[in-house]
Amino acid sequence: MIRRRIGVLGGGQLGQMLGQAGVSLAAEFIFLDPAETPSARHVGRHLRAGFADAAGAATLAAACDVVTYEFEHLDLPTVQAIATTTEVHPSPRALKIVQDRIRQKEFLAAAGIAIAPFAAITSAADLTAAVATLGTPCLLKTARDGYDGKGQRLIRDPLHAAAAWAELQQQRCVLETFVTFSRELSLVSTRGRDGAVVFHPLAVNHHRDGILRLSRAPAPDVTAALQTQAETMARRLLNELAYVGTFTIEFFHVGDALIVNELAPRVHNSGHWTIEGAVTSQFENHVRALMGLPLGDPAATGHAAMVNIVGTFPDRHRLLALPGVHLHDYGKTERPGRKLGHVTIVDPTASGLEQRLAAVLALIE
Amino acid sequence: MIRRRIGVLGGGQLGQMLGQAGVSLAAEFIFLDPAETPSARHVGRHLRAGFADAAGAATLAAACDVVTYEFEHLDLPTVQAIATTTEVHPSPRALKIVQDRIRQKEFLAAAGIAIAPFAAITSAADLTAAVATLGTPCLLKTARDGYDGKGQRLIRDPLHAAAAWAELQQQRCVLETFVTFSRELSLVSTRGRDGAVVFHPLAVNHHRDGILRLSRAPAPDVTAALQTQAETMARRLLNELAYVGTFTIEFFHVGDALIVNELAPRVHNSGHWTIEGAVTSQFENHVRALMGLPLGDPAATGHAAMVNIVGTFPDRHRLLALPGVHLHDYGKTERPGRKLGHVTIVDPTASGLEQRLAAVLALIE
Fold first, then answer.
1. Is the separation of the CB atoms in B342 and B328 below 8 Å?
2. Which domains, from first to last, does chain B contain?
3. Which ipTM was obtained for this model?
4. How many pairs of residues across A and B have Cβ atoms under 8 Å apart?
5. Could you tell me the pTM of the whole model?
6. How far apart are CA B286 and CA B174, in angstroms?
7. Which tens digits make up the pLDDT trace of B65-92?
8. Is B330 close to A26, i.e. CB distance below 8 A?
9. How far apart, in whole angstroms, are the C-alpha atoms of residue B342 and residue B45?
10. Nearest-by-Cβ selection for B43 from A42, A288, A320
11. In angstroms, how far apart are the furthest CA atoms of chain B?
12. What Cα–Cα distance (Å) separates residue A26 from each residue in A5, A20, B43?
């Protein structure tokens, strides 16, 4: 059976790009989103409802063969309710684990995956004890709803720990050792219904103000051993979760090793380069997995870079006049810190890529 | 000014692929189409109306910044009426010329473009005289509404000319000398609002039963001189028409020369390979031209082949399990001779392409 009618919780840019990919496979989308004009509305039906709206969720479930989501900060009982009538992928179990940093860290630790030392913080006493154990500097992160660097505080001195937690409204948190890493790498994988897993090459990510600005893929200077290290971890986690769909792991690269920073149960900004830079994109493979179709070749076709457009949009004429620019405009109004679009460039050579990238960065930055 | 709201007369697979490309540029589409479930309905609004419905056309014109079309067999007065209030590209003048084979041939001849000897047939006397002048074999084609080999008769003997014309309901026709060619090549170009023109590499096309089955691009054994010959003709025609948008020329390759077979004022089946096989696709460049944006690089990124899926759909699991297959499913029900979808494969080497293509053809043919 091919599941054509796909419901998506969230209708932002990830939904937009899922929809674009899915149209080629004759998938039909309904995007549940409370926004009036979500980006994805042009590639499917828009069901306007809140993410915790039981009636909206029931409508979506009834109209679809399978339901997925484009972000993890969802109301779990609503997703679990959908799953009582309609397949949900990734599963509510995967969502429950990944959407909560405490559960996520405990899951990773139990699976024997390398992570930074951490402690769950649910009281002032937890915090005092954990800062003493882990030492400073350390990072305090809310267990829920963090993204783009939001919901985090760096603690340099134990004296400031209580104030940092107060700034985060004393929510449930994890405290983790501040890892000194050489770079951040991410691995986007997809697992099919049949258990087959495909891996894109590692990408290297550059952030500013907590927001991803630039990814290069395949990341330079990645040995076969390093790629294998990443894939081995991903395969273990995906199998452990009986996962279906696309999955992203952000790693810290420390020496020759990878430490998992965090997981995302979805297509990911650091995998946007795959639309033009890989044989099969993360979006198409997620849709293939949902539909129960074989996964496509995740290999890179050249050297790719992806640059986010954040806050303000550069002049579109000047941008599109640059050679080889692939623009993805999310159709959003400008707002500081908001991801408005991205540009991908692919070149057969690393030096050619850098030349083209410099021109793009000069315009976007 | 960037024209975002794009109206399209026709909502078939070409509209579907235009929409997919346009979403990335934040274009918004309305597809006017009388069908209940046209392929393009998933990538924009569907305005259900007949192509000669004045009210429907007025609604489309009022809602859009620019109107285009995905096929040329349109009611010209309706298109001209739209153009009184809203920009139409390609222009009604271009449409008028191209949609009628007599006008098209006369236009080509007047522009000094190489074509097969032809005659306009509007009476039995015309036909008798023309068959005598051109000799046999010759081809009789209706002036209007021909596609996929429909509306054509091969005349091998002057005695059969009248019967052939009767089979075509004695419509206005052109009679043309039957050209013995080594292959059919096509050139897809786009002209921007600023007059800039870009050309994809020539593709070589293979038909069966009058329907395109396979295109390879860049076509093998195309010298720089041959590509230039094609581009020179295209540029002359595009400039002469003050054309805006994508334009296709089908050529017969005869010896070292190209003879124009026919024109299409639109994106074309023989250019579908550009979605995955060129830096910028024909669809994106048509949208860029409509929006008034700079055109993108039309160069090929490797060796590409496009195979049409006609009549019946192969098993999707087996098809997508083949490495490097890019499927475009138009979401149509099966019907003999109907184009249901296509597959594109791109490979860095010509031999790699042939290997992959053989596996695809084994499944589709």
1. yes
2. 5-88 (3.40.50.20), 117-177 (3.30.1490.20), 183-364 (3.30.470.20)
3. 0.93
4. 77
5. 0.95
6. 30
7. 999 999 999 999 999 999 999 999 999 9
8. yes
9. 24
10. A42
11. 60
12. 9, 10, 11
